[in-house]
């Protein structure tokens, strides 16, 4: 039901004309044809001339309403596609007319997400988005390009589109609205801050290179010729058979420490409390800042969270279970997931995800659970994780009397912003 209402308001925003004017009424064409036949029969030259002008303008308006708009081509480009809040984004609108007739009166109706702002332009508000009306004028086989500066104060996947064209004939007698193919989007990352966290940054026993699990944690780089010191388990038998010599698989260097972040975006203590947007944004910003802090110090960081909504998943929530990796690419994946994060509902899935992932985590991986509040289910899952892993708990919501205390072997993580 909500999606139907959203489509309705997108098709018909406020303060926009949709009905054709009197020139397009079919009854007037029939009446005008009868009057023209009578004028010709009676020999009234003045009336014949006036009716001829009427039919000419009516046909021109009809042609512009039904045919000319099909010769329009639209292109939307956003640069850059990944930004941080309050950073400018340039939207390039390229419009081309492939018809021999000019389009002197043309308006583009561009739908934007409600969070998107255009400081230099005036936008109309609708229940689900904002509408930007842009006037254009195109000649025969003409092209025009316009650049608009956009800003987004909050994180999220920001859609640009759909786009509709309001086409008027040269005399301005009739205005018709038509949908044009062309949509794009860009991603706004969450805010990150410089922080200090009391967490281990090196393995106490050094790096272990004897277990095959470390290969699964690393990124595959490619084959290279076999050397006598290489373990036999790394031999790439397919490449060796193809090239006629022994080749081994190579991986990127394993970071000095590995951290798995488990995030719970549910902000409600009770089902009837709803969603607290301030606590949610604080939780997301702290998680992004912590991941950036650890990756900048050479750690391999993984993120486990549910409640991510993306266009690739059809706007349905899905879980992200990214194993610990290092490097800027991993940070980009984490920030992209946090940018599209929403509360998945009233049920907390973090304890279930933590219990499912514990058997696959190496014992040197340290675990950080981030949640607005600590529940009994999460307390039990942290107690199980603390048996074999160094475990931390970071609470992002306000503390209250009667809250559940972390298990004895789980440490509270303190994150302090740097001046």
Overall outline: elongated
Structural class designation: alpha/beta
Fraction of helical residues: 25-40%
Number of domains: 3
- Count helical runs: 9
Radius of gyration: 31 Å
Subunit organisation of the chains: single chain
Per CATH, which architecture of the largest domain? 3-Layer(aba) Sandwich
Question: How many DSSP E strands?
Answer: 20
Largest sheet: 7 strands, mixed
Q: What's the CATH C level of the largest domain?
A: Alpha Beta
Which fold name corresponds to the CATH topology of the largest domain? Rossmann fold
Termini Cα gap:
48 Å
What integer is the average pLDDT? Answer: 78
Q: Which parts are unreliable, with pLDDT below 50 for 5 consecutive residues or more?
A: 1-24, 203-217
> What percent strand?
25-35%
What series of H and E elements makes up the topology? HHHEEEEEEEEEEEHEHEEHEEHHEHEEE
Structure characteristics:
Immunoglobulin-like; alpha/beta; 3 domains; 31% strand; single chain; Rossmann fold; six-stranded mixed beta sheet; seven-stranded mixed beta sheet
Task: Walk me through the structure.
This protein is of the alpha/beta class and 419 residues long. It folds into three domains: 136 residues, Immunoglobulin-like, CATH 2.60.40.10; 168 residues, Rossmann fold, CATH 3.40.50; 33 residues, no CATH class. It is built from nine helices and 20 strands. The strands form five sheets. Strands 2, 4, 5, 6, 8, 9 and 10 form a seven-stranded mixed sheet that branches. It has a six-stranded mixed sheet with strand order 16-15-14-17-18-19, sandwiched between helices. α6 runs antiparallel to α7 and α8 packs parallel to α9. The radius of gyration is 31 Å and the shape is elongated.
